[in-house]
Amino acid sequence: MGEGALIEGSDGKLYGTIAGGGAKGEGMVLKLNKDGNGYSALYSFVGILTGGNDGSGPQGLLEGKDGALYGTTQHGGRDGGALDPLGMLAAGNGTVFRLNKDGTGYRVLRRLTCGGGEGSSPWAGLTQGPDGALYGTTLNCCTDTNEFGYGTVFRLNQDGSGYRVLHTFGVQKGDGTRLFAALTVGTGGILYGTTDGGGTADAGSGVVFKLNPDGSGYTVLHSFPQKRGDGRMPRSRLLEGRDGALYGTTTSGGHKDLGTVFKLNKDGNGYRLLHSFSGQSDAPSWPEGWMEEKPVGKPVEWDGAGPQGLVQARDGVIYGTTGNVGKNGGGTVFKLNPDGGGFTILHAFPSFDGDGKNPHGTLIAASDGALYGLTQSNSTNNCATLFKLVIAPSVRATAPPSR
Questions:
Q1: 3, 7, 2: which is closest to 27 by C-alpha?
Q2: Strand bridging mode 260-264 / 272-276
Q3: Best CA proximity match to 229, nearest among 203, 254, 208
Q4: How many angstroms separate the CA atoms of 197 and 171, rounded?
Q5: Nearest to residue 61, comparing CAs of 117, 13, 131?
Q6: Quick check: 18 and 386 in contact, CB under 8 A?
Q7: Are 279 and 255 in contact (CB under 8 A)?
Q8: Residue 127 CB neighbours (<10 A)
Q9: pLDDT at 192
Q10: Do residues 240 and 246 lie in contact, with contact meaning Cβ atoms separated by under 8 Å?
C-alpha cells in the first residue's frame, strides 16, 4: 500500500487504497465509516494479468475540489496486460485515475508511457494545487538514452489533459534522485518534496526540494547528510506545520541509523533534527567517531524504526508511525511537539491478538478528533487492518477561583 493511502472524504467517510487484494489481486479502492461499518470495495484493479490496460497497485488517494477521488497506480496501463519480456515486471508504467465516491465513473486519465522523458512508476498519490491541477511524482523516468532515470514531478488537469513534466531529476549536479513521496503544496502555492537519493553530499542520501507549479524555481533546500548523525533517505511526504515550517522523516540515519524526524524553514534555513530513533534498547549505534555531536534528546527505548509520514492534529502536536521494531516488534505510533520535546510512544504493534502490525502511510487526523491509519498486516494473518486511536485531551492547569 502506498504512502498516504488513507483519507477522510468531505462526507466524513474513510477512503483508502491497498496495493494488493481486490477481485483480481491487483489492488483496490475501499470505503468505510469511521465506526468500522459500511465497508465496501469501490473498485478492483485489473491491469496486468487479465489482458486490459487498467492500472495495478494503487498508491494513494486525493479528493479533488470536484468531490471525486484521484489517485495513481504503480504499474499497469499497457494494452494486452502481458508481463514484460523477462516475465518479471508488471506490464505498463503506471496510471493516473479518477473515481466517484460511490464507485462509479472510473476512468484512467493518463497511462504513463516511459518514453521521451515521461515519468514512470508513481510510488505516491497526487496533490491538488490552488489552480485545480493535479501534481504527482514518479520514481523513474525514461529517455532515449537512459531507460530508467531518476524520477519526475508532473502536472495534469482533472480531465486528464495538459500532462507536463515539470522537472526531471538527476540531470544537474547535486540534484535529488528517486521520489517515493507525494508533494506538499505550501502556503503561496509552492511545491515541496523529498527524494531518497542524490544531493550535494557524497553519500547521495536524498534532498528536500521546492519548485513552482509551472516548473520554474527548482531549488534544493537540504541535502542529506550535511553532517554525521543527520538523517538520510526521506521517503514520506512533508508536513507544513502551523508555524509555517516543514516537518519530515527519514527512513534511515540518526544516532542508530534507524531514522529521524526533522524540521526546516521553507527557505532551507533552520534545519534541525527533532528526534533520532533508537529502535530497541540493544540496537547498535553507528561506529565510534561517526557522531560529531550528541544524539538528539534522550534516547527512547523501543521507539521503533523507519518513521513514516507526519500529521499535526488539532491539539498542535505532531503524530506519526514507525514501520517496524518497537516494544512488540511491529512498529509504533508516536507523538512529539513541534520543538522536538514531549516525544511519547502511544501504541506498540501488535499489543493484542488480531492487532495490526507494520503501519504504512501517513496517519489522518479526522474531523472527530481521532487518528486513523492502516497497517500492512495483523498478528494472526497477512491481512491489512485499519485502526483508530483516540487522542487524550490535554490537561491544562487552571487558576483557583478568586475569593
A1: 2
A2: antiparallel
A3: 254
A4: 13
A5: 13
A6: no
A7: no
A8: 22
A9: 98
A10: yes
Q: Contact, 225 vs 201, CB < 8 A?
A: yes
Q: Rounded to an integer, what distance in angstroms lies between the CA atom of residue 299 and that of residue 360?
A: 24
Rounded Cα distance, 171 and 300, in Å: 40
Confidence band of 402 (pLDDT split at 50, 70, 90)? very low
* Closest to 211 measured CA to CA, from 135, 287, 117, 306: 135
d(CA 51, CA 41): 22
Residues 6+ apart with CB under 8 A from 88: none
Q: Is 369 part of a structural domain of the chain?
A: yes
Residue 13 has pLDDT above 80, yes or no: yes
Residues in CB range of 226: below 8 A, 6 or more apart? 201, 271
C-alpha 106/C-alpha 99 separation (Å) is: 4
Last residue of a domain, one of 78, 102, 134: 78
Q: Closest Cα partner for 93 from 62, 68, 59?
A: 59
Q: Does the residue 131 lie in any domain?
A: no
Give per-residue pLDDT as tens, 194-208: 999 999 877 689 999
Residue 316 in this model has a pLDDT that exceeds 90: yes
Q: Which range marks the domain in which residue 28 is found? A: 1-78
Which among 251, 379, 363, 249 is positioned nearest to 305, based on CA atoms? 251
Matching residue, cell 507536463: 164
Integer CA distances (angstroms), 84 to 45, 47, 88, in order: 19, 13, 7
pLDDT of residue 276: 94
Give, in degrees to the nearest 5, the angle at Cα 288 between 286 and 293. Answer: 80
Of 32, 58, 78, which one is at a domain's C-terminal end? Answer: 78
Q: Which residues contact 193 (CB under 8 A, 6 or more apart)?
A: 137, 153, 179, 181, 182, 183, 184, 208, 209, 210, 237, 238
CATH of the domain at 307: 2.120.10.30
- Measured distance CA(207)–CA(219) in Å, rounded: 10
Total domain count for the chain? 2
With 0-12 CB in 10 A as exposed, 13-18 as middle and 19+ as buried, what is 57? Answer: buried
**DSSP 8-state code for residue 266:** T
pTM: 0.90
The verdict on residue 60 lying in a domain is yes
Give domain status of residue 237, yes or no: no
